Amino acid sequence: MTNLGWDVCADTLLKYVFVDKISIINDFVANGYGVLELDQKDLFTLNQTPVRMNGPIAILGPGTGLGEALLFSGNDNNTYTIYPTEVKTFFVLNNEFT
Prior knowledge:
The chain is of the alpha+beta class.
């Protein structure tokens, strides 16, 4: 796990918990699954553009860099596939503090 030096193994975890399967996912994949469960009432509009149903979704957030995940709709337009990015994106401040 990033910044902790931990080794996490799904097969080892299965020995200690009572489930049939464990999948280890990163935090932005987990956010992607959460975003797919949001209702319209949970969203805040930043600009008035037409909604594109089943369009791509981007998730961004701070962490050790800038965490990112991309969600793309499948051919059936009913499912999304979530793609985490593993690239560290850094912002460079351009002001009197840098």
